[in-house]
Each structure stands twice: as structure tokens, then as C-alpha cells.
Amino acid sequence: MTVHDFTVEASDGTPRPLSEYAGKTLLIVNVASKCGLTPQYEGLEALYRDLKGRGLEVLGFPCNQFGGQEPGTNAEIQEFCSTNFDVTFPVLGKVEVNGPDAAPLYTYLRSEAPGDFGPESGFLYEHIKRSRPEAIGTDEVKWNFTKFLVDGDGKVVRRFEPTVTPEELRGELDGALA
């Protein structure tokens, strides 16, 4: 099984088979409009514009599971992304990333790259330790803007926790696209 075996929902409700991205390097990110990390949209868009010609696709999946920070409808989310960050990468349909209603894609991503979330994540680790201590030491997505790097064959390469900024991913992405 690979990421290419999944079909997700586009923001307009139509199915989007991820096999459409075969041969492309993917950065899959759970996003939110009302998060302290929301400015990462700007860095994600910059990466997308800079590296799309080399085969990078950024896929945003809005998620409201962390502090209710993505309360809008799919249409409202699209408007927010376009108006505030001039986002041109696909922001797909809203999903859950953890729990019994997690999107199958996210269940797969988490199992393939459980992450190494710990004290090196700084303020976010302290926040999760206080607000969701049961999540520490699990494969759960800990917060908005967790990023999964997927190679052109659909294999999950690595998970980056939310505190890793898009700018910090540049070297890793350059290597993946080489």
C-alpha cells in the first residue's frame, strides 16, 4: 500500500485520487485558519511556488480537531487561504486526523511515520503535555501543521512536527527532489 492508493475529498466534495500525484514528491499538511501556526501557510506557498516545477506538490487538509481552530466550511477555508495567503496549492476537504473518524489517509500516514515528538518541540511539547498528555508517545498527530513527506512512489519518507517551519524543510525537499 502507498499514499497513491487513497482517494480524498476535494474542497468541493468531489473525489480526488492521490494516484494523480504519482511521480510527484508530496508534502501533506493538516492546516487550520485560526492557529498560532497559521502563518506557515506563507512558507508552504513559497515552497510550492519555488519547487512545483521540480515535482513538489503541497496538499493541505483542514482539520478542526485542535482547539477548534478550523471551524469554517470548506468554502470559507478556501476564501481564507486565497485572501490572506494567496494560496495556490490544493487545500482539500476538511478531515479528522486522529480518532475513530480519522481519514484513512491519515491513519496510514501516522502508521508509516509515527513521529518523534518530544521536548525538542519546545512550547508545543509543553502545551500538549498539559492539554493532551495521552497523545505523548503515540502516533497521533499532535497539532495543526504536522507535515508528512511522501516520495514519487507514494511511500511516506518522514514526518515533521508542527514546530518545524516550511523554511526549515527546504534542504530536505531539495534532496527529495534531486
Automatic annotation (TrEMBL):
Which keywords are on file for this protein?
Oxidoreductase, Peroxidase
Presence of keyword Oxidoreductase: yes
- In this protein, the active site sits at C35
Query: Signal sequence span per UniProt?
Result: none
Q: Thioredoxin domain: which residues? A: 1-178
Give the InterPro entries listed for this entry.
Glutathione_peroxidase, GPX_AS, GPX_CS, Thioredoxin-like_sf, Thioredoxin_domain
Q: Does the keyword Oxidoreductase apply?
A: yes
What is one Gene Ontology biological process annotated in the Swiss-Prot or TrEMBL record? Answer: cellular response to oxidative stress
Identify the domain of life. Answer: Bacteria
For molecular function, the Gene Ontology terms on record are:
peroxidase activity
Give one Pfam family, short name only: GSHPx
The UniProt similarity line reads: Belongs to the glutathione peroxidase family.
Name of the protein this chain belongs to: Glutathione peroxidase
